Amino acid sequence: MSTYKKYWNIFWHFRKLEMMRMIEYRGDFIFWAVVSILWTGFNFFFFSLILRVSNTIAGWSTDEMYLLLGVFTVLDALTWTFFHRNMHEYTQHIFTGSLTTLLTKPINTIFLLTMGTNNYNNVFRFLIGCVVIVISVQRVGASPSIIEVALFLLALLAAALLIYAIWFICSTTAFWIEKLDNINEVVPGLRRVMQVPRGVFAGATSILFTIILPFSLVASVPSEILLQRAEPKWVVWLFVSSLLSLILAHTFFYFALKRYSSVGN
Amino acid sequence: MKKVSLQIRFYSKVIRFKFIKALQWRTEMVLWILLDVFPFIILLFIWKSVLSVSENQAILFSDLTVFYFLVIVIQGFTSTHFEEYRPKEIRMGKIDFFLIKPYNYIQDIVLNDLAGKLLYILMLSPLLIILGTVLWQQGLIVLPDLTIVHLAAFILLMFFAYCMQMLFSLCISLLSFWFEEANGLLHVKWFIVAIFSGTLIPLPLMPEWLLQATNAQPLKFLFAVPIQLVQKGVLPTFEDWGLLLGTIMFLILCSKLLWNKGIQKYSSAGG
């Protein structure tokens, strides 16, 4: 129990440090927060253009689509807040050999690598996503119960962990592949898959994006839970796949570590 | 004449050297190509789903396929990305090295980008050929009768679009003589280009206000005009060429002014 408490305290200590850094560079924060809001608005604008042509995408009405986009926006905000900078620094540690310093610390290396930094620029994106979810649920006329809301939050957490695990696996390949700075762009490059209903994909792509690499479930399944029409098999698969991905990411990291060498720092 | 010939030899040697340097990042480039192409493939899935239930007859799925295929082609041939890292060079005072070379920093940026672009095109072309052939065989690429004039105009438009993209990137990079977060302006560029250049959705599907806004400014030459040329056979008018050349001249003047003013402001503590 004390171990969990230690990590909990360290986690918040890191957040506090980042908050102090953010306050130091206020202009930077405001600029990037505006950029983040612009891109969020752009995404909604883009889908509004598509929805002008037809009021539905893969059987999802306009309001349901905005709910899905709201869920995606929340996930995207979490992704950029916690994963992007940490994963970038992770691969830089591998390339420069400074991972050695982290390996010698009396703390779990994966925790240190993936929770060490964050940014607060996406806090407004997160809030926009939350507001859109609430408004869309009201407009659709859905009335999810407390249990469904709890399940929605759990599904959201599972989705975030799935993204995290797959991103971490991608970044870990840096142990083998040099001169590949953009390995961290692979998961962000697949974001378009996450922001559309899973019904958009058919045939082989459906198998690819719902079973093998279930990115089409990350926003669809939590949204379906709120819309009270989630299929149990997909909810279960989202949880199972995120758990499997986490185990795989953990195992892969320690396997990859055997390849690591540096001349000290 | 001899001076020009010497300069051509010099620049071709520099490009060759930069090309060899760019080759060491070939794996990264393959990944960039896939990451550039992938979102458009997903967009086709979205549109297929949308059009399967839509009664809107303004556009066919094959039109959309050609549209996004052309976006991939034009983006591959004309986009520039050096504004992502050049501002840092300027901010960190790392351009002293170029100030004592027989060619200046601007030339280095341009030649480096040309060599990188050459490699990118060489690596992108096989993928485009395969993708184009597959789509053609499935009857998804349908083009009007295009003449040699259309082809020449398209190539010329691509060249000018590349010049425009490069000059935009150059101006953003040079603004870092004054602004700490000049590379953040890159997002502003992406944002404006995405909305007003005609890359987002085909012109027939745009709302009236966006269509008017796209047609009223020179960013349309980046995507909308070349795509209309191939898809509908619409050649740019003399006014269009005038606006395009005028914009490029204006951007050249801006970048010259920014460089001349910026270099006077520049200081560093050794390279």
Topology:
The complex is a heterodimer of chains A (265) and B (271).
Chain A: H1 2-24, H2 26-53, E1 56-57, E2 60-61, H3 62-96, H4 99-103, H5 109-115, H6 123-140, H7 146-172, H8 186-189, H9 191-194, H10 203-212, H11 220-226, H12 232-257
Antiparallel strand pairs in A: 1-2
Helix pairs in contact in A: 2-3, 2-6, 3-6, 3-7, 7-11, 7-12
Chain B: H1 2-23, H2 26-51, H3 61-78, H4 86-91, H5 96-99, H6 105-137, H7 148-174, H8 185-196, H9 208-215, H10 224-232, H11 238-265
Helix pairs in contact in B: 1-6, 2-3, 2-6, 3-6, 3-10, 7-10, 7-11
**Low-pLDDT residue spans of chain A:** none
The helix-strand sequence of chain A is: HHEEHHHHHHHHHH
Order of helices and strands of chain B: HHHHHHHHHHH
Shape of chain B: globular
**Residue fraction in strands of chain A:** under 5%
Strand content of chain B: under 5%
Total DSSP E strands of chain A: 2
Distance between the termini of chain B: 36 Å
Q: Please report the total strand number of chain B as a whole number.
A: 0
Total count of domains of chain B: 1
State the major sheet of chain B: none
Can you characterise this structure?
- The complex is a heterodimer of chains A (265) and B (271).
- In chain A, a hairpin with a 2-residue loop joins strand 1 and strand 2 (60-61).
- The longest helix of chain A has 35 residues, at 62-96.
- Chain A has 265 residues and is mostly helical.
- Chain A has helices spanning 2-24, 26-53, 62-96, 99-103, 109-115, 123-140, 146-172, 186-189, 191-194, 203-212, 220-226, 232-257, and strands spanning 56-57, 60-61.
- Chain A has one domain.
- Chain B has one domain (12-50, 58-265).
- In chain B, 71% of the residues lie in helices and 0% in strands.
- Chain B has 11 helices and no strands.
- Chain B is globular, with a radius of gyration of 20 Å.
- The model of chain B has no long low-confidence stretch (mean pLDDT 88).
- The chains are: A mainly alpha (265), B mainly alpha (271).
- The interface between A and B is large, with 35 and 36 residues.
